[in-house]
Amino acid sequence: MSALALDGVSKTFATVRGARVRALEPTVLRVHDGELVALLGASGCGKSTLLRLIAGFETPDTGTIRLGERLVSGEGTLVPPEERRVGIVFQSYALWPHMSVGRNVGYALEVAHVSAEIRRARVAAALESVDLAGYEDRNPAELSGGQRQRVALARCLAMDPAVVLLDEPLANLDVHLRASMLEAFAAFHVKTKATMLYVTHDQAEAMALADRIAVMDAGRVVQFSDPRTLYREPATAAIGAFVGRGTVVDVRVLAAQAGQAGIELHGRRYRVRCADARVPGAAKLVLRPEDLALSEDGFPARIGRVAYVGGSWDVDAFAEADPATVLRLSLPDAHRPAPGAVVNLALIDGWVPAA
User: Mean pLDDT, the chain, as a whole number?
Assistant: First the structure.
């Protein structure tokens, strides 16, 4: 059974000048029980609108939203946010500064008139799940940014939510805290098996955390798959360029069969992976840094930027036949090419999407 199901959900907003802007096209989405799904996309792609619709802060124009088997939006039904059993973690933490950590975590239970004994037990369990046991009497001002974010997460858990929604939860943290909190979120998900929907524009966060990633663009979910499939087999060339430092180059498919394509690139012929629907003709080839290598029998290219990234070199190269396109490759520590040098490059692998 799906913990969260959206069918044909869309949303349009009016601008200050009276124009209508479609923030979310009709969307179908299924999140399984206990799954962590990331909504990934650039600012303005519709991911936060989708989150607000699930939480009940916005009303969809069309479609239905179900939490488990319960209809919460659509078909004449609109369950208010406080009755949806949806927990939300904002990037701003949204903690009450005049309340202790324990009271922040248990405030929703207090408003719901849960008994003090049960409230204390649930607050303690929630704080323990985020490694903040014993912090009940602290003030939020005494905590680090990462600890405050854990308190916000514990507040969700104390409510026993059906789904936890996280809206760019690491956006306000520095790079070291972000890395630490990524580990904390991953450990938390394994421990609690909570169903989570995680909004981010950072693909590294999405790849590190999610069971599946929904890539959004212009109000649409353009691909929904596990991180490896998203990286290795992007549905379109645009997704391939967006995810994983991809390079997209023009090629000609000579033949395609059973997921393999013969292509021609810069006067050389190679065999790469392709979508089953691929047909011969002009196409886009998605290349990852590991798909290119130095080779005596390859096409000539000039080395541009060279950067050491610890154990390997990030290299930009430009094929002499196409000097406008940056080819990114990763080379071992011992194989540092000099900027400006001319080398030969060959394809080890690559992916031709259906579109």
Answer: 91
- What residues contact 122, with CB distance under 8 A and at least 6 apart? 106, 109, 114, 158, 160
Closest CA to 88 of 202, 1, 234, 197: 197
Tokens read off for 202: 């950072």
Residue closest to 247 by CA, chosen among 139, 151, 169, 319: 319
The span from the CA of 216 to the CA of 230, in Å, is 13
Crossing angle of the two packed helices 175-192 and 145-158, in degrees rounded to 10:
20
Task: Supply φ then ψ for residue 24, to 5 degrees.
Answer: -140, 120
User: Which pTM value belongs to this model?
Assistant: 0.88
pLDDT in tens, 173-200: 777 778 877 887 888 788 778 899 999 9
Q: State both tokens at 286.
A: 């998605």
Calpha distance 292→315 (Å, rounded): 11
The string of pLDDT tens digits covering residues 71-117 is: 999 999 999 998 898 988 887 777 888 999 999 998 888 888 889 89
Which of 54, 31, 33, 51 is closest to 41 using CA atoms?
Answer: 51
DSSP string of 248-275, one letter each residue: EEEEEEEEEETTEEEEEETTEEEEEEE-
Going from the C-alpha of 143 to that of each of 110, 140, 193, the distances in angstroms are 23, 5, 26
- Distances in Å between the alpha carbon of 18 and those of 12, 13, 45, 136, 161? 12, 9, 21, 49, 37
**Residue listed under structure tokens 């109000």:** 219
